[in-house]
Structure prediction request, 258 residues.
Amino acid sequence: MENENEKKTADTAVRKKPDMDKLTELIIVIMLGVTALLTAWASWIGSLHGGNQATNYATSNNLASEGNSEYNAGVQQMNQDMILWNDISSLQIEIVFAQNNNNEAELAKLCNQLFYKMAENVSETMAAKIDWNTADNSSSDPQATILAWLEKENSMSSPFFDENYVNSYFTKANELLAQSQDVLEQGQKDNSNGDAFGLVTVIYSVVLFLLGIAGSFNHKANKYAVVIIALVAFVIATIYMFTLPMPTGFSITSFFKG
Prediction:
């Protein structure tokens, strides 16, 4: 009776060993397939991040170029307006002297000069800052218009003492440069995310390698150890991959639209 029980136990052990081997082989096959698919997925998403990075870098460079052009244009315009204001200030002083000396002929001449200089050259932004009404550009009485304007509070105050006014020359340039910086930072994020997906691809490649050589081990303990290491690496890589953001604007359905 005891011999029969021992024989049954031995037969059961023999059957369990092949079952364990088959289970291990099944796990290896399944992991090979899943890892191959996830490797392709990680590689594809990484390439999309790389494409976004290149696009964002190019866009950032274009915006920076436009911003620098606008900045140079702002500097040029500001210099022209400063020269204009110096001319206006000189005429204002001469008008005051003509008034003090009761020189009506000189006063009329200077007022005409200043009126047409203002009407033809002063921008709306500067006009608002120095209280010049652009509607007066078509006035039929230049002298009266100029004298009335000189009575206003800001008529003789240089607009270039106001930092906000000076900065207004560079508003568009600053907006473009800020956009350029934002796009550049997004490109840098895409670069980092692309590198991260590349790392995931490398780990998956190691997993595939380990699973590929697992079958060559005759010693079962070694085979199981390799499979366990591969499984741990697979889990770590997969968890890490799903913590990474997808590319901006990514939608898998968009690839199936005509």
The radius of gyration is 40 Å. The mean pLDDT is 88. The chain has seven helices and no strands. The helical segments are 2-100, 104-121, 124-129, 142-150, 163-168, 171-214, 220-242.
